[in-house]
Amino acid sequence: MKSVSEFSPEELAAWVCEALAGAGIVVTLTGGGCVSVWTGGEYVSRDLDFVEQGTVPRRRVRRVMQSLGFTEQRRYFSHKDTEFVIDFPGGPLAVGDSPVKSVSTRLNATGTLRLLSPTDCVRDRLAAFFHWGDREALAQAVLVTRAQPVELDEVCRWSRAERSADRFEEFVRELDQGKNR
After folding, report:
1. How far apart are CA 173 and CA 2, in angstroms?
2. How many C-beta atoms surround the C-beta of residue 90 within 10 A?
3. Cβ neighbour number for residue 97 with a 10 Å cutoff
4. Helix, strand or coil for residue 105?
5. Fold type of domain 4-115
6. Which of 3, 70, 114, 125 could cross-link with 77 by S-S, CB 3.0 to 4.6 Å?
7. Which of helix, strand or coil describes residue 114?
8. Does residue 68 contact residue 19 with C-beta atoms inside 8 Å?
9. Measuring CA to CA, which residue among 167, 71, 91, 66 is closest to residue 126?
10. pLDDT in tens, 45-98
11. CA pair distance 56, 9, nearest whole angstrom
């Protein structure tokens, strides 16, 4: 296996996910790291956010992360051989007010990565746009939608449930603008 310094963001995420799974801790990649995977690296996040399934004592996570060479720095874990930091934001795994019912998996040389599906990744990024006005998250949702098959009807339905139909229309306009370039 290559060194940590040579891992792509996806390989690093899979390595962490696999090690945690080996200790009975199920995690799912979300946020910008998920965008990075689904866009083939067109977008790069410097942190990898994992949401734990169920309640997991921090000491169990810490033990696994330390076994991989990470050190805890407040809420993040860093490794001397990579610029990426690992974070475990609180769960449950959800996009806006909707729980995530299923996740995608990707197998690579460092292990199996659990991550939001492209559709849920778009909903996750749009939630940040809808609720906090995060325009970078809007741009990330557009990138994923252009790179992967996304169930836009489901995203539209969810947007209405989030009381953000107007913001969904803004997302659709951003998608359409890219087609005209």
Report:
1. 43
2. 6
3. 11
4. strand
5. Beta Polymerase; domain 2 (3.30.460)
6. 70
7. strand
8. yes
9. 167
10. 999 999 999 989 999 999 999 999 999 998 899 999 999 999 999 889 999 888
11. 24
